[in-house]
C-alpha cells in the first residue's frame, strides 16, 4: 500500500494557511521521520493523513484511491497527549475492548499491568496511558501508523521499550510508520529516512503570519 | 553557564515524604495506596535540580504535593519546608502563584475559555506584567497575535511555551517545572532551559522534572533519579555527562544506556505497581546485582560525592 498526499492545503476558517502545496508519499514497510520546527504543521499534517481533519485543497490517497469514510481506518494516529485522546469516563478495560485489543499478548507486549485496566484515565500517568493508545492502534487492519511525538511523555527506558516493541510489530507486519519527533537521535535510531516539513510546506510564513522580521517561528 | 554557589540553606526541603491515596476496593472495602515513600529532596537558591525517573514514579505528585493540589483522598506524611517554614495546606495555598510557581505537565491545564495573553499575566493588568509578557513571548518566538487566541488554537509546542511563560514571569522564588519541554524542537527546548538557567542564576531555585534528560544533564546542577516513588540517586550533573561508569545506582545506569544516542537498549521489566511493592529495594526485581540483603530497608548512603540508595554501589 502507498499513502500519498497531493498538493495538500489546510487552514482553519479565516486563518492563514497552515499547510500549502504539501506533497508527500510513503510506502508500506517504510519508517519515515517527520521533523520541523514547532508550530509548523506537523500535527496538522498527520491529522489530515489519518482523516481527523478534512483538507481544504488537494487530496489524500491510499493506493491512488481516496480513503474509505466507513469502516476501519487503515491509517491510525497515536497522539501527542494521551490524556486528551482517551475518553475520561471510561475505564481502561473498556478503552481496549472498544478496539478489540483486549488480549493477553497485547497487554504483555506493551507492558500494560492488569491493575491498570480497572482504573480511569486520570488515575494513570501519561506514560502508562500512552501504552494503551499504542495498543489500541495496532489491530489487524492497520497498514500505516502515524506517531505524533508519542514517546515524549515517557521516561527513556519506557521509550526504548515501546519503540523496540513497536518496531518489531511494524517490521513483522510491514506497517508503514510515520514518526513525528524533535529528537534527532531518536529519528536516527528508528527511521529509514526523514522529511523536514519546513522544506515541503510551501507557506510563505513570514508574510502570511504577519511576523515582520521574518523569523521562521512566527507562524500560527 | 553554571556558577559555583556558596553553600547556603535550601529554599525547598522535602524530608521523608510519603504520599498515599485512600482508595475504595470492592464494595465498602478500602485500602491505602502508597505512591511516594521516604522521598527526600532539597533545592538551594541559585540551583537547578533536575528530577529524572520512570513515568509514574511520583515526580508530578511531588510537584503537586509541594503546591498543595493533590486530590482529597491523598494523605501526606513527612515534611515539606520552604525557607525553613513548614508548609501546611494553608501556606501552600497562600504561596502558590506568588512565591512558588508551577509549570504543569499537561497543556490541558490551560483554561480553555480564557485568552492566552490573560492567562500568562494571571489577570494582572499592570504595565510591568505586560512588558515582561512581551519580552518572554519574543524570546520564545511567540507571535504577539496569539495573545488573543484561545488554547485550542495553538499547536502543542506553542501551548507548551505559553505554559512556561506563565511561571517564568511570576515573581516566584521557587519554580517547579513539570516537563516544560515536550513538543518543542531542540532550539526552543534549549531556549526554555536557558530561561530557567538564567532564573536560577538570579538566585531563584528551580526544580526541573523532565524526560529529556540528555538536555537536563547540561543545564542542571544536580540530578535526582526517582524510581517507584522514592529517590534512588542524587548526584552532580557532571557525573551523568561522563557516562554510566560514573553513576552509582543500577537504575541510573539503565536510564543512561536507554538513550537513543547511547545505544537505545532498555532493561526488561516494569516498575512495580504501588500496591504490590517488593520488600526492601524497590528496584531489586529488575536488578542484576540482587542479593538477599537487598530485602532489608535500604538507606541513602554517600558514595563518591553523591547519594545512592543501593548497598552494592561502589
UniProtKB/TrEMBL annotation, chain A:
Domain of life: Bacteria
GO molecular function: ATP binding
Xref: InterPro entries: AAA+_ATPase, ABC_transp_ATP-bind, ABC_transporter-like_ATP-bd, ABC_transporter-like_CS, P-loop_NTPase
Residues in ABC transporter domain copies: 3-220
SUPFAM superfamilies assigned: P-loop containing nucleoside triphosphate hydrolases (SSF52540)
Similarity comment: Belongs to the ABC transporter superfamily.
PANTHER family the UniProt entry points to: D,D-DIPEPTIDE TRANSPORT ATP-BINDING PROTEIN DDPF-RELATED, TRANSPORT ATP-BINDING PROTEIN
Protein name: ATP-binding cassette domain-containing protein
Amino acid at each position: 500500500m502507498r499513502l500519498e498526499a497531493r498538493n495538500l492545503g489546510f487552514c482553519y476558517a479565516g486563518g492563514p494557511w497552515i499547510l500549502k502545496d504539501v506533497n508527500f508519499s510513503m510506502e508500506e514497510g517504510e519508517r519515515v521521520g517527520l521533523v520541523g520546527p514547532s508550530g509548523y504543521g506537523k500535527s496538522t499534517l498527520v491529522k489530515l493523513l489519518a482523516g481527523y481533519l478534512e483538507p481544504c485543497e488537494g487530496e489524500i490517497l491510499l493506493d491512488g484511491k481516496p480513503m474509505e469514510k466507513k469502516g476501519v481506518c487503515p491509517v491510525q494516529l497515536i497522539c501527542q497527549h494521551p490524556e486528551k485522546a482517551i475518553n475520561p469516563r471510561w475505564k481502561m478495560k473498556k478503552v481496549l475492548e472498544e478496539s478489540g485489543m483486549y488480549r493477553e499478548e497485547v497487554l504483555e507486549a506493551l507492558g500494560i499491568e492488569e491493575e491498570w485496566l480497572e482504573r480511569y484515565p486520570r488515575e494513570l500517568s501519561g506514560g502508562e496511558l500512552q501504552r494503551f493508545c499504542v495498543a489500541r492502534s495496532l489491530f489487524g487492519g492497520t497498514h500505516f501508523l502515524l506517531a505524533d511525538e508519542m514517546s515524549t511523555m515517557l521516561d527513556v527506558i519506557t521509550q526504548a521499550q515501546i519503540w523496540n516493541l513497536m518496531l518489531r510489530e511494524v517490521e513483522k507486519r510491514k506497517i508503514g510508520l510515520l514518526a513525528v519527533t524533535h529528537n534527532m537521535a531518536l529519528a536516527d535510531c528508528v527511521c529509514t529516512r526523514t522529511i523536514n516539513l519546513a522544506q515541503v510546506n510551501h507557506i510563505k510564513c513570514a508574510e502570511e503570519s504577519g511576523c515582520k522580521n521574518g523569523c521562521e517561528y512566527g507562524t500560527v | 553557564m553554571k556558577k559555583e554557589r556558596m553553600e547556603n540553606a535550601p529554599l525547598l526541603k522535602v524530608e521523608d515524604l510519603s504520599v498515599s491515596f485512600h482508595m475504595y476496593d470492592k464494595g465498602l472495602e478500602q485500602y491505602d495506596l502508597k505512591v511516594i515513600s521516604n522521598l527526600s529532596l532539597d533545592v538551594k537558591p541559585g540551583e537547578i535540580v533536575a528530577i529524572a525517573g520512570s513515568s509514574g514514579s511520583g515526580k508530578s505528585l511531588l510537584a503537586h504535593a509541594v503546591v498543595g493540589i493533590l486530590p482529597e483522598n491523598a494523605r501526606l506524611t513527612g515534611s515539606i519546608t520552604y525557607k525553613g517554614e513548614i508548609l501546611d495546606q494553608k501556606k501552600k495555598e497562600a504561596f502558590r502563584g506568588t512565591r512558588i510557581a508551577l509549570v504543569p505537565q499537561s497543556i490541558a491545564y490551560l483554561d480553555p475559555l480564557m485568552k492566552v495573553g490573560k492567562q500568562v499575566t494571571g489577570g494582572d493588568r499592570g504595565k510591568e506584567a505586560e512588558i515582561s509578557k512581551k519580552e518572554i513571548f519574543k524570546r520564545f518566538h511567540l507571535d504577539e497575535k496569539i495573545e488573543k487566541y484561545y488554547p485550542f488554537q495553538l499547536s502543542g509546542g506553542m501551548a507548551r511555551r505559553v505554559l512556561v511563560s506563565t511561571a517564568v514571569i511570576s515573581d516566584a522564588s521557587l519554580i517547579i517545572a513539570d516537563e516544560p519541554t515536550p513538543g518543542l524542537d531542540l532550539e526552543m527546548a534549549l531556549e526554555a532551559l536557558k530561561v530557567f538557567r538564567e532564573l536560577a542564576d538570579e538566585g531563584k531555585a528551580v526544580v526541573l522534572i523532565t524526560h529529556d534528560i540528555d538536555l537536563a544533564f547540561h543545564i542542571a546542577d544536580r540530578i535526582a533519579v526517582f524510581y517507584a516513588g522514592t529517590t534512588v540517586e542524587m548526584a552532580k550533573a557532571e557525573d551523568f555527562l561522563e557516562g554510566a561508569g560514573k553513576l552509582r545506582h543500577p537504575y541510573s545506569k539503565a536510564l543512561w544506556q536507554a538513550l537513543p544516542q547511547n545505544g537505545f537498549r532498555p532493561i526488561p521489566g516494569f516498575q512495580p505497581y504501588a500496591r504490590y511493592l517488593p520488600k526492601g529495594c524497590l528496584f531489586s526485581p529488575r536488578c542484576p546485582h540482587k542479593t538477599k540483603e537487598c530485602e532489608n530497608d535500604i538507606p541513602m548512603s554517600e558514595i563518591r560525592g553523591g547519594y545512592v540508595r543501593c548497598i552494592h554501589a561502589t
